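Retro notes
What went well: the complex prediction finally ran end to end.
Inputs used:
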Amino acid sequence: MLEFIILGTLFKCSDLTGYDIRKYIEEGIGMFYKASYGSIYPILNKLLQQGYVTCKGELEGKREKKKYVITDEGRKVFIEWLEEDLPKGSSMESFMAKVFFFDALPDKNAADKITAYELKLVAYKNELVEQSKQYETLKNKKDFYYKLSTLYFGICKLQSIIDWCDVVKQRKELEQLVQQEDIEEE
Amino acid sequence: MLEFIILGTLFKCSDLTGYDIRKYIEEGIGMFYKASYGSIYPILNKLLQQGYVTCKGELEGKREKKKYVITDEGRKVFIEWLEEDLPKGSSMESFMAKVFFFDALPDKNAADKITAYELKLVAYKNELVEQSKQYETLKNKKDFYYKLSTLYFGICKLQSIIDWCDVVKQRKELEQLVQQEDIEEE
DNA sequence: GTTAGCATGTAAGATGTTACATGATTGC
DNA sequence: GCAATCATGTAACATCTTACATGCTAAC
């Protein structure tokens, strides 16, 4: 996965160092994906060997900077990954990591992918709602309140992502996703 | 992490096989945590060596079943893990995996932990909202619509979990978390 | 001058997954 | 009789984190 996120980063911006790439990832998808130098640098070397990126070392003062650039072959491989369906059982984070780079895709294409994903989410949510109904009738409910609460967590999270899909697949204004009530500083 | 989830499972139910444990995990927190036999069986052996579980092999017909039971030492270690604060930068999934077992904790204790976690989420959400405002004024917004959409994804997800915390920490009825609109079958 | 941030990298180990190997039992 | 599920386990590999090692540069 990280190899494609690195390629996507270089697809967007040229002449980045490993350090820059980490910052770009952290600032962009840091809320659901973490990458450490211990994984970035070895992968950059692998991508070099595979010919998906090139690298020119530059000296800034005494410090060497290795600036990476994606190749045509690298672009091809990256777009293939973007277009590819997710493996079964993938997390939302994997999906969102792709969405982060969807600006590189034709618009209809991106919307279709989100619609397809939304369908899966709706089906899954309905499944969980059915499950929750089975618990509702049990008498000793308070003995597994927290256990049950995680099921509702799943349902809420799914619903919020379904709502998100509804807005994004139509390219509506994103601001409407946030109820602008009270964001008082605490 | 998995070692504690296994201990928690045996805390709840005795005389489970490795196979049973996997099913319990899958049905309970399968929506955000996966465990394979390739990790469960080796960990069960480790827990045996550490004295946190015991095991009696039983023959059902010709088939051997290894049924595991948690020890007092195992209970102690499990509760310690439950009480412990999460390491920084942990995912929501790690937190929820603990909440799933919170029925084993005194009630006030559990509520406090959820309140503490909620505070972090609110602070983090406000940070992301601030970030999103910086993007709003840019002119070429449509060039990074999807990039920006993942930021809003983060905000929505956080808000939905904050709402969840509000209900659960007060032990309110969980059903109110789901808007009972239209769950038509498709 | 000293702290924070820039910059690259490695080695050890944690923590899994996937695929394989094997076979019993239950329900249709 | 056949498929699905129950049941245990290993070996190879994948993937990443943590801690270490090193040193430059900008800002205060």
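What we learned: Chain A touches chain B through 51 residues (CB under 8 Å).
What to try next: split runs per interface for comparison.
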